[in-house]
Amino acid sequence: MQNAFRTYLDAGSTTPVSDADFARICAAFKSKKLKKKAFLLRAGEVCKHYALVLTGALRLYSVGDKGSEHVLSLGVENCWVGDRESWVLLTPSPYYLEAVEDTSLLLITHACMQELLRTVPAWAELMRGVNRRQGIATQKRLEAAISSTAEERYVAFLAQHPGYEHRFCQHLIASYLGILPETLSRIRMKQLAAKTQSAEVLS
Amino acid sequence: MNQVRLGYWHPFGNPPTSYRFSAFFAHVMQVLRDYIDQQTRSTISDADFALVTAELLPYKLRKKQFLLQAGEVCQYQAFVVQGALRLYSVDARGNKHIHVLGVENIWIGDRESWSQLTPSPYYVEAVEDSELLLINCPQAQKIVRTVPLVAELVRIQDERNAIATQKRLHDAISCSAEERYAAFIAQHPSYVQRFSQVMIASYLGISPETLSRIRAKLPLASATADRDTF
Asked: How many CB pairs under 8 A join A and B?
């Protein structure tokens, strides 16, 4: 675990992390393992910890009035997951955070994060990068939700997250993209047909 | 790099150093200073603030002028001192999609293009006459490194942006058009007067017809409808 985390740190910061700083960073986190289908956060609770995924996969979702689930984000290795608003403001969260596979996480409270950001410059740099990338990704996802067709969204999703298709089931992906499972299935059939057709033309 | 290469109206042309003594410069910098103090709940020292002002470029846009057009690299993030802007893209069918509406004390620009120097798919256009402060990526990194209070400001802004975008995404995925409009006016009461209905509809990802139908149903919104027609 320490090794994976160290690699993650070194990749994200231009200044090398000293051993003393690394010890300080490690002390701010606690590790946690979740079995598949276990929850890190349930609606109504305060999201005490933001989590860095070491192995496994999770989904953050809300449940609508009519019982429908809306997947807000999917996270795999090296992703940060959690309800940012609840974590920062300590307000009750409207979200559930559930492990989709057996998962190993590193957890940090907002207070510990603040302390690290103040005391370890390399960590501050790393988090600025994480925030920037996350900001760009969420912005893109928002735009897709608002302005793209279901098909465009699915194509963009596959391009951006090549591995996700095999790790998350179809109805989770449909919910993540904000489309009906039936629509997603229709799009997939159409793509499959187009692929076999072009294969026939080639042969 | 510091030269404004855009050919739009600019009060200084290629600004001579003397512009740093103009009343306009003093005014926009005071607005920025108040903003930094208020956001960080602290007071920036004169020495630190001098480091900040050295990197920022005051700039004016008239209504309908562009700070950025699709295909260009977004050289600058703009801090809005006064005015209103929108950031939008145009899809293959020619439809505009508004992603950001910005008014006073908001940063606007394509962050991805700005930090990676890739061509941007967006337009940033002034919706009103606007006064801005521009900063490019190396300059921003420089003051983040040298002025701790600015690093703190960036952190606070990142946090706030992340929360706002997360909320907006959640609403886009899981709320009805009506709920989204209600949340929008609750969060940005003044936007209804400053941006046209077509722009707000595009920002919310609904058709203008749907928005007009929703507004007709809301007593609060229809009261301001007359004003919007002017």
From this structure: 80
